[in-house]
Amino acid sequence: MTVRILIALIITVVISLSACKSPQVEEAETTTVPTVPTVPTDTTVSVEPVTEAPPPTPAVKTDSIIPLTVNITNLESPTAPVELSIYGKGNKFPAPDGQLKKYRFTPKNGKLSAQLSNISYGEFAIAIYQDNNNSGDIDKNALGIPKERYAFSNNFKPTIKAPSFSDCKFAYNAKDNTINIAMLK
Known about the structure:
Number of strands: 8
Largest sheet: 5 strands, antiparallel
Shape: extended
Strand content: 15-25%
């Protein structure tokens, strides 16, 4: 009896499905669009805006930002280049490939005062080393300790591990725009 009910149910479904017709798609008729009369050239037409555009956002002028001055002392060589890497909050401090920007300066008369003019105000950290052999990388011993002089902003002196961003961060703004860093031996 269950087989008969099942067969009756299947027949009912098939009949109801065959009774359903899909709607026919009619072809669209071709209509002619009336031409719009042209406006004479000597007539002025004013168009009112539907919505008002938002006022323009004032742009920060980079020439109005006071450059960040970094004074570096205790250099080992009076002429060997100094690599300076600047990091923002979102960068991997002090990873050599995680910096926001990287600079290379040559000291003059054993002194270095660098002006960084292409960064905006904010919180930053700096890592520096003097590239005495001009290799482009900081030389380290087997334990990973730098052989060349290096330094961090806030004159942070690491003990066992590399410093964190919070150890070396400083505020750069119109009021605070000069930092002094002494190279470690």
